[in-house]
Amino acid sequence: MNVLLLLVIVAEFSDSQTHGSGFPEVVPNRQQFFQSEPITISCEQLNGLTGWRVMKKINGDVRTCASTWETSIGPCKIINAYPSTDSGEYWCELGGIQKSNSVNITVTDLESHVILEVPVQPVIQGENVTLHCRKKDANSNYTAKFYKNGISIGSSSSGNIVAPTVSKSDEGLYKCSIADAGESPESWLTVGSHPTVPYLEIYLGLCIGLGVLLVVILLILVGVFQHNKHQQTIKNHTEETSLTPGAQNSTVSSQSPSSAQTVPAVVSRAEQNNETYSLITKPRTPKEDRALESVQETYAMVRKPSDVKEMAAASWLQRGTSQRITGMDPDNFYCSIQN
Q: Which residues of the chain have pLDDT under 70?
């Protein structure tokens, strides 16, 4: 997005420089006028925008070119130019923020009969420019002399002088004179350079834009990776938590004899109360083994706390088996389960 915006700005800049739209447009394109001549000053489409106002500064007084503020948007048309009200500096304004370059317009009085036609817009280097010394109400050719910064630069019987392939050195104040008619006012000839596209700025802007884009993409990828890693951690923890009780029960069952069907219940209750338990087999003599060959018995001794005895007894009763509990000492007991 930044790259596209930069390209649009550069394109607009290049277009405005090419068309010389930094100055108001004056019709006719000259800086000097005889009294009562019409003049049109326009700022329409300056830099591709509308809504410009033509402003002027006459004898230090700044005002709109139009007579009222409400009608000041658009071209300013002067029907009959007068020195006291129309000679001065003109420029364009938009919203009181943007301001164009200014041009100077000179309106001669009735006693002046000579003007020099100098272009309002800057002349591009390498182009040809023609300066015309004009005599009021003249119908025939006349010889005119031309001056730059007060120094004579030649004369012409046609009233014109051509400056081929102008350069910055041709800038200056120009005037002309005609014998028995008088001398014109001075006007400044501006020489502009060819519009150049700021390639270095374009490349720099492109690099900055691409760098910002890469950083954004990298941050997005890092965020996605961290999110997936966090979700995987939560998933693994959930699976471990769900498998832990089953693993504990399977461990206890593997440690218990197959004939001791009621021991896991005792162990489970003991685990809930954080109690210690152990599985034992009562030693028997060979005689007892022969006497009990037909009877399957399991003995368990639980050492502290003593209330396990009641838990075991309750468990045996719930399963409907016949119990025979033999007390040995205050801290130990044996349970005999007969199926």
A: 1-21, 194-201, 243-339
Residues pairing with 136 in the sheet: none
Report whether 31 contacts 18 (CB < 8 A): no
Phi-psi region of 87 (alpha: psi -120 to 50; beta: other; left: phi over 0): beta
Q: At what angle do helices 2-18 and 199-255 cross, to 10 degrees?
A: 170
Look at the alpha carbons of 38, 136, 177, 141 in this order and tell me if their dihedral is positive or negative.
positive
* Burial tier of 244 (Cβ tally within 10 Å: 0-12, 13-18, 19+): exposed
| Tokens coding 290 | 């022969």
Please say whether the beta carbons of 252 and 241 come within 8 A.
Answer: no
CA dist 32 and 108 (Å) reads 8
How remote is the C-alpha of 106 from its chain's centroid?
48
Sign of the Cα torsion 106, 54, 80, 136 reads: positive
**111, burial (CB in 10 Å: exposed 0-12, middle 13-18, buried 19+):** exposed
Angle, CA 38 vertex, CA 147 and CA 63 arms, to 5°: 90
Reported as type and span, the H/E element at residue 161 is strand 160-163
Would you state the pLDDT for residue 132?
Answer: 94
Retrieve residue 261's tokens.
């069907």
- pTM of whole model > 0.90? no
Helix (H) or strand (E) holding 147: strand 144-148
φ, ψ (nearest 5 deg) of residue 231:
-65, -40
Q: SS3 for 211-254, per residue?
A: HHHHHHHHHHHHHHHHHHHHHHHHHHHHHHHHHHHHHHHHHHHH
Q: Which residues does 326 contact at the CB level (< 8 Å), separation at least 6?
A: 333, 334, 336
* C-beta of residue 149 within 8 angstroms of C-beta of residue 173: yes
Whether the bond between 28 and the residue before it is cis, its omega within 30 degrees of 0, is yes
What is the C-alpha R_g of the chain?
54
